[in-house]
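FAQ: What does a ligand-bound record look like?

Like this one, built around thymidine-5'-phosphate:
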Amino acid sequence: MSTGGAQVSVETREKLYEGKAKIVYATNRPGMIIQYFKDDATAFNALKRGTIVGKGVVNNRMSAAMFERLARAGVPTHYLGTLSDREMLCRRLEIIKIETIVRNIVAGSLAKRTGLEEGTPITAPVVELYYKSDPLGDPMLNDDHVRMMKLATPADLAWMRRTALRINAVLRPHMKKRGLLLVDFKLEFGRSGKTLYLGDEISPDTCRLWDVTTREKLDKDRFRRDLGGVEEAYQEVYRRLVGPRA
Ligand code: TMP
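The answer part, i.e. the structure of the complex:
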């Protein structure tokens, strides 16, 4: 595959990794990989499996739009360009095995853990850390655990927390203008040399997004909780954050 552009020509090489929702390929360009976005959906550590038709396109295009916006706000991301509806060119990172979650409204596991009702507003955003480990089911960690396990240095962790809150400060008002409440979201960071970057994706798979007025869920919770209208919700998010489908 090639971009066909005059300046960049990228060819896909071997598959490096296949995850639940994406495939990562090496390329002919050193330090660059391709993320291929699938329609496969899983939940509850892959106990539940399914397909969300068109999800790969939505997640690829929405992630690109969010990464571009973050780059303009000074947040370093792994995004280098869009190659096709489902393929994104990215800087190759050594992923830090921590999932960073930012929460603005109580939902999901925070509602379960605290007994607070889903939808309860949070005054100052809450940042949580989880160990990225499928066999262990992504358990929650605190800073001491991160230090003990040497998952990140204290300086890296401080940067991750600061950057996660900065990302929230950029995306939350942007999405609100487009009729979406950014309830919570998951981030992954990684290193290239000594520099840290935001990696992975920003999509309805990794964010909870509610309609500002009706509070209708427009994200992967429709799949997790069998609410129906899953594809329609992804397309609606695409329409609001990326633009009309051709
Ligand atoms: P939680 O309420 O289940 O902890 O999820 C918090 C946020 O993280 C939510 O926006 C969905 C996202 N998330 C992922 O991206 N991957 C996961 O494996 C899980 C459990 C949550």
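Follow-up question: can I read anything off the structure? Yes, for example: The chain has a mean pLDDT of 96.
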